[in-house]
Amino acid sequence: MDRILLGHGSGGRLMHQLIKEYFVPEFDMKTLGDSAVIDIIADCGIRNADNAPSYPPLKLRGGRGSYELKTQNSKLPRFAFTTDSYVVSPIFFPGGNIGELAVYGTVNDLAMVGARPVYLSAGFIFEEGFLIDDFRRILGSMANAAKRSGVKIVAGDTKVVNKGKGDGIFINTSGIGIIADGIEISPKNIKAGDKIIVTGTIGSHGVAVMAERNGLSFDPPVLSDTAPLNDMVQEMLSNGEVHAMRDPTRGGLATTLKEMAMESNLCLEIREDSIPIAQGVKGASELLGLDPLYIANEGIFVAVVKNNEAEDLISIIRRNPLGKNANIIGEVSESPSGKVLLKTMIGGTRILDMLAGEQLPRIC
Amino acid sequence: MDRILLGHGSGGRLMHQLIKEYFVPEFDMKTLGDSAVIDIIADCGIRNADNAPSYPPLKLRGGRGSYELKTQNSKLPRFAFTTDSYVVSPIFFPGGNIGELAVYGTVNDLAMVGARPVYLSAGFIFEEGFLIDDFRRILGSMANAAKRSGVKIVAGDTKVVNKGKGDGIFINTSGIGIIADGIEISPKNIKAGDKIIVTGTIGSHGVAVMAERNGLSFDPPVLSDTAPLNDMVQEMLSNGEVHAMRDPTRGGLATTLKEMAMESNLCLEIREDSIPIAQGVKGASELLGLDPLYIANEGIFVAVVKNNEAEDLISIIRRNPLGKNANIIGEVSESPSGKVLLKTMIGGTRILDMLAGEQLPRIC
User: Fold this and answer.
1) Which of A75, A322, A331, B246 has the largest CB neighbor count within 10 A?
2) Which one, of A209, A197, A208, lies nearest residue A320 by Cα?
3) What's the CA gap between A142 and A97, in Å, rounded?
4) According to the model, what pLDDT value does residue B53 have?
């Protein structure tokens, strides 16, 4: 393969290959997840007298002394840092637009590592000729979305490319969150016996965008589920033992479960009849020839939680309007390691792999 | 005006208008500079018992208690946060490529508020069909540039748009830096009597890109000056009183000086014959019909420093290979407030304004 394909951006196997083969070795990255958990002390290489990582007050020594990092024995909290570019087409779709998607998507990436989202940046790439009115509408949505999520947009950038060299508007948002002591969220913490929760119905975002793109409308309409998940995450973290979380955006539920299975080296078994899916999405998927398990979502997440806390957590999640359709969809077993097994409605077992190629390009 | 123009991305007056009219009010932004200085304590709204902003250890209260932010009386350092999208065309040019530009550009934005750059994110938007070999070359340049700058690239994202809806590759980098106690860099700190320093020759980056775009070559070739400025910044901060810094990228030296004049409400007076400019850039600018004062730079910065420390600082800067052509180009006076005056070689005075329209679209 010598060229980038649309599938490289679809969140599935091609993208994972690209990340694994190029990004990780070149940048010496430790994680394949969306948010990096950063330890600014360790990464600054700052040590105290005992050679332990230590918080630098970073004082200037005297007026003209050297710019030296002094240390003391206090600790910095851990932060989460993430980035996402949004190229969804069309930019306005039932239930949302590229602006709120760009805010909620990045807020959710931070929330998925247990961070409290605090700051966002917003970088715009316009195609010459883009309507200022559309820009204002998008900006307004972003401001509202930031308010709803409790984050501040503090840095911005604007670039313009010639007509025909872009597609209206692309938005990058990067985000910083702060992680509470004691919070450790990672597929590596998944244990056999854990329960798998999905916090809402699947497939709405992808179907809403595809419908708009193809000029279809449904009655009742299928709306994107784009929403901030950070409050629901905090409710869960304060009430139970959550081992891993991830939002099934590009690549859909199946790809996210497969990532978790591979990163934990365990088997995730789910039951088809327990997966929440709206009637409209089911019908539309059949019509469009799409598998809802691979359709992108923007307002739900998968949580893998301690076995005997799952029922309590489900009732807590369901009290949140965004979680009213939450369900336990399966559990974790030892083997076959790295696999996702779907128990189908007719009693068969299907092995779920990552999305191959592009089912839905430019969905976010 | 109802549509986005190329000039909205050129760093000049149109872009400032866009930021001021839309971004600042919608996002309630405090600064117009490239990097936001963030105070995570104040922005989390966290207070200690005395109602003073206070660092939260963010401990979970008990196993199932509420997710409460407890406070103690230690302090968090200030961070800088910045974002930039790179859409330079062509992506390979004499002296560099889009990859190292994306790293150094963001490193420099952090350095300009006195921060030590620590983390970068990298978000890629590919046009379908982009050559993997070119991607590898760019990624390699980014990894080298990160190493040279002392930063880690810790978060990434990949999107692909259809053929004809992008232009090869666009890169967004966002960055986080840490700011030492006592460092306050802002045009608001500029005082009448301060000296204005430029750390190197102007116009190289813009001329290198324009030459490549137009198939011109010069002998000797004009190379982009793209380089990380953070070390030179640290050398200056440890050796003198620096009031303001800014790197004159899009919009060139004139636009940057005008920003500083407006934000400080003072007058910046510079002498044309003291502005360092390479022969090749001078010749090429004449050939291309460009004013070097408005041509983009990527490896120099403007520093406004305390009057009686300027000479010492200049000799320190000149010891750094990136600063060997540094010069004092003028000084600050009370009035006319908000203006930049250029004393020309023939003895006249020219008022410099921001770049109007687009002199050089897609230069970074």
Assistant:
1) B246
2) A197
3) 9
4) 46
Number of CB atoms found within 10 A of residue A210's CB? 23
> Which of chain B's residues have a Cβ under 8 Å away from the Cβ of A126?
4, 8-9
- Taking the CA of residue B125 and the nearest CA in chain A, the distance in Å comes to 7
B105 — pLDDT class (breaks 50, 70, 90)? very high
Confidence of residue B75 (pLDDT cuts 50, 70, 90): low
Q: Which residue of B has its CA nearest to A232?
A: B67
pLDDT above 50 (res B67): no
Q: How confident is the model at residue B316 (pLDDT cuts 50, 70, 90)?
A: very high
Q: What is the predicted pLDDT for the residue at A64?
A: 34
